[in-house]
Structure formats: structure tokens, C-alpha cells
From TrEMBL:
It comes from freshwater metagenome. The lineage of its organism: unclassified sequences, metagenomes, ecological metagenomes. This is Unannotated protein. GO terms for molecular function: ditrans,polycis-polyprenyl diphosphate synthase [(2E,6E)-farnesyl diphosphate specific] activity; Z-farnesyl diphosphate synthase activity. Transmembrane segments: none annotated. PANTHER family: DEHYDRODOLICHYL DIPHOSPHATE SYNTHASE COMPLEX SUBUNIT DHDDS, DEHYDRODOLICHYL DIPHOSPHATE SYNTHASE FAMILY MEMBER. GO terms for cellular component: plasma membrane. GO terms for biological process: polyprenol biosynthetic process. InterPro entries: UPP_synth-like, UPP_synth-like_sf.
Amino acid sequence: MFDSIRKLIKSLLYPLYERRLVRSLDFSKTPHHVGVILDGNRRWAKSNPTSHDPHGHKAGAGKIIEFLGWCEEAEVKVVTLWLLSTDNFKRSEEEIEELLKIIGDTVDQLAATGRWNIKPVGALDLLPEWLEQKLSALKPVRNDGVEVNVAISYGGRREIVDAVKSYMSQEAQAGRSLNDAAADLTTEDISKFLYTAGQPDPELLIRTSGEQRLGGFLLWQSATSEYYFCEAYWPDFRRVDFLRALRSYSVRQRRFGS
């Protein structure tokens, strides 16, 4: 009885709180690029045993379109969503197959909206052929709106290794020696070959579920990012949680790593 009353009170108060948060935000200070580690699906499933979603991946996928709508409202330009890490392949074959199918369906749903350009970022060669082909076939559909990076089979160290390999390959094709190419290598050269090349680095990185680490997410790009760690599991992540993250970012004095 008490829990029901408490939930009712929260449901009545949160819309008021959201409106107050929106009024307090300066959207001129909205981060252009937000990265999100969608963490906590499995723990959410354990805390919701009647959900018929044993690993929580369906619930997590169902939150994505809603979240991107919030990003549009806040005038965010680029969003990177970490859906699957290279380390996730250590999970059981059954769970990985389920997760890959849900990811494939999610990408289809995102593309079907026509609202966003969807860009896969990650080591796509590690994925099954059907998913790699689906992701490789994605094309830009508009010149405005939020750019959505779906980080699938992604690892920050692997990204940097791939960037260096691509640079060295380009130099070799131009007829340069390995020693000369290595001597001239700069941070700008590596940035040109990252999965997110051409996009601004993320100003804000959000991780749900209470874990306070990045786990290699956007390892190179996050050198000067601000971090926001949220206790809510990803399927429970609310608009008010997102607004809190934006408020936290807007009041920070950014020192860009100094």
C-alpha cells in the first residue's frame, strides 16, 4: 500500500520536476556530441523477473528511440551508443545470438524512422555476415538531425590499433617507408582514421547502472570529455535522468584535461 502511494506521488511530481529542469537549462551550452554506455540490462532483468526478458536486452533496445528523441529536443548533434563491446563476445553463445538479433532489429527500427543517419562504428569483421552486411548497407538519409553512431563490436584499444594500421597502409600505398611513416605520425593523423573521423569528440559521456568507469569507450576521443554516472539501469533511464546529466555538464568549468 505504502509503495503504491509513493509511486503515485512520484508520478505526479516528476513532470513538474522535469519542467523545472528544462527551464534551468541553457541549451546554448548543450554538448554537441554525447556518448552513452548502455549498461545494466542484465541486472535490470534480475530485478524484474516477471518481464519475460531474461537478459534485459529487449527492454534496453526499447529505450533507444525514446532517448534519441530527448537528444533532438536538447539540440544534441551527435550521439554514440555503445551497444556491444568486443569483450561481450565472452558471454554465452545463446546470449550473444539473442543480443545480435536484437541489435539487428534495433538498427532496422532506427533506420525505418528516417529521422537519423545511422553509422556503425566498431570491428564489424567480428560480426556474423548477415549483421555485417546489414550495417555496411546503411546510407545517410538526411542532411540534418542527430547523427547516431551505433558502436557494435566496439573496443577503444581495437579502434586505435585499426587507426594506426590504416594510416600505415595508406603511407605504404603512397610508397613511403615504414620508418618515414612512423616518424611523421601525429595525433591528428590517428584522429583521421578513427571510426568517428570527421565528427566532434564527445563533450559528455554518460554511463548508466552505477558503474564509474569507461571500460575503453571512445578511449581516444574522451581525452577532455566530462563524465556523468547514473545509478539507474539503462532500461529504467528516464528523461529526468538525461536532463540531470545535461544540467551537471552545463555548470562545470571545463578545463580540457588541464
